[in-house]
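B., you asked whether I could sanity-check this one before it goes into the benchmark set. Here's the sequence:
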Amino acid sequence: MTTKKVCYFCVNDIREIDYKDTQTLNRFINSYKKILPRKRTGVCSWHQRKLAKAIKSARIIALLPFTN
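And here's what the prediction gave me:
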């Protein structure tokens, strides 16, 4: 039996996900620099959408790489 993962952002009461915070964003991308799915990270759907948008913004301004 698996335990239900809780949203990292909801637990830590983080409302806005900053695209400049690359340390936090790196937790949610894999070694190939792809965005990890909700099932893997346990992030709620609202924060997953915000997270994907922040990662894409960080990639555009070259804070995060597009590929490995």
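One thing to flag: The mean pLDDT is 93. Otherwise nothing jumped out at me.
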